[in-house]
């Protein structure tokens, strides 16, 4: 204990507590309730005030003196039991906090109750639930009282000591709820023995089981004024006990859940038992036995004479002696006893006239030292209140391990110290004894204890640990030549540990420094591993390529975090190392640009390959072109060049004939460079391919000329491809014919006939006279007789056909002249009631001024009008107005302009047709007015506005034109209420 700091403080609560009657016994409970047993009755004090006093007339009906023997109060301060003894026997009373007077428990008459065990887990303010009473004749009884019943519900006999009948001096009870019922733990003490009972079920069931089996007990013989049993309660559970016996204070821990499944229920729930000898409490030769005891979490309060000695339960050392300010008349008798309030951690001492409160002031503050002195490090750490205290515990553990040369364990403890010992001092300790492994362990544990804010320290310690690991690895290699082959060797174990360290500390280690360390120690595998952790994939891939492990390198490149640039960078080396795996990897990699792989593919293609070997580059390029639909000209050109170098030109021709851009509007059909393809095919002497390229480039003459060198049939097919240019097609066929004739040169008649038979291949495009110049001069006419006759017959047929066509043309011209003559005499009959198609007025209504013009028909002074073959008739002005309204703006402006010109010119003197002129003369001698009127007629009367295109176009026009948008509201359908009915009307 630190000097000047008291743990237990004594305060005087009240004097003369028993109203002049001497206090015999005292009991405290929660809610500041104290029950005093006096010579005349008992007093219940609430909040240490005056309270209610119950004075029992002990002499009424009872001979002799009567006095309170014991009083007992439950932990909540609601239930109280008291025993009164005298010459007339013993009586037990029960009272509730709400009652005005106590009730006698008649079934307990004659029994002296020495001890009571409350069921702390089940008791309520209204009911005591099961309570165990211990008597002075060695019996145990069960009782239960409900406040509303005003009397006990039942009293049951439970157990009686048969072997050694002694008075029960103390009782305690705990319960635990299990799936198969409630387990009871009961502890009882007599002057010389401590008994323990346990079982599942009800109390009578538990104690009935001890009829056939022995009771577990602990015997400590010896005399003592008052044997007591106390449980210390924390968080509603008892955690340790103390028995004030004749031999000493027997104490230990309580474990109420250790062996709940034991079949016989005989388990001992006491652990860590110890006995405190009274000789440790007194100075001198003879020990004085205590008269009362109270228990706190870490201490015993022992009443010896008029002093209360506070003893540490763990170290068994006296830490304080409490003095009491007693009244003069009480000094001779001394302190009577101690009691405690477990719920408030308060203790009380009492004499005849006074009550003293002993309060606890942080009693566990120095327990870490106590545990530390006893080498109980775990308990010491649990009792520490700050980091300095914990450091002292760790330091003592570390020093003990270091002294025992357990350096690894010492390193772990040293690493936990933060304040009382510096980092440098600890490291020098291990360096001084040459313990590199322990130093490394210390550094690793120190890393675990550092926070993220200590970045600089973390980096330095991690780097130092890395170097220690590398030194350890190299030393193991030097010491054991078989370390590399033995998978269970220490070398392999430290390698795994080192890699785990690199993985954990990858973000803490400086990348450059760590790589230099790994390289300087020659740890290439670990360098690659660390580079992979730091996502330095270039180093990793380069290492695998040097090792010839293309598959591993490709696996690294396949990772999502690896940039595609590394694919392109290492492509040349990888495809040369393993072309198949490389191409397979390329085909599964997304977003790969084949154009950037062209250098690697060209390098691979430049190497010689076996005839039957699968060309991996061609496979990849075909995948790009056909599956990925790649349009890069470089890719197509490379694939074409590889096809051109193959012995079989089938793949080349198929590639050239493919239309890759098919289905794309305005797009090319191919993506390779035709000029490059032509040069390449000429160089590789792929003539059929050259013919196809010439044809594709519309160089048909060159295509046919080259095809004739390869295959005349191919030349004929190329000549037939030209369809839109007859002259060029004939020219191409003449080239083929010349070649055929020259091939069939000779005087033999059959050769000439073969050449002439070629004419049939041209489907009449070439005649005999076209190919005659190609024959030799000495050829006989008889060889061509048949061909010439056939040609003459064809000419005759053509001449006859031309004659027929000329005759048909002559007849057609005559018909046209007749139609023109008939047109001048054409007329139409109009009924007198015919109406205008626009204004609905009669056509033949007399009008104002009349002007004669072409297209107008007049009978008397009436308005000009138009009549159409379909039968519709219109006034001239109505027709003009209708057409200008329905036609487009440009046409309407044109019509209005013609009408305006006609109006201006109509002011000249009227001029009528000369009756002596013919129709042809009148047409050719039109005046300007007549010309304008003719143009107007063409503009408005070229077709009937009701039957022609004008009406058809109007069908697709909307009801409301864009320029009439302001009239939309007039078309809205609006509801109108008429009476109780609703109607819809169209606003027009």
From TrEMBL:
Transmembrane segments: none
Domain Pep3/Vps18 beta-propeller residue range list: 20-360
Keywords: Coiled coil, Membrane, Metal-binding, Zinc, Zinc-finger
InterPro entries the record matches: Clathrin_H-chain/VPS_repeat, Pep3/Vps18_beta-prop, Pep3/Vps18_RING_C
Entry superkingdom: Eukaryota
GO biological process terms held by the UniProt record: endosome organization; intracellular protein transport; organelle fusion; vacuole organization; vesicle docking involved in exocytosis
Keyword Transferase attributed: no
Compartments it resides in: Endomembrane system
Gene Ontology MF annotations: protein-macromolecule adaptor activity; zinc ion binding
Pfam families: Pep3_Vps18, VPS18_RING_C
GO cellular component: endosome; HOPS complex
Ranges for domain Pep3/Vps18 RING C-terminal: 865-953
This protein's name: Uncharacterized protein
Source organism: Nyssa sinensis
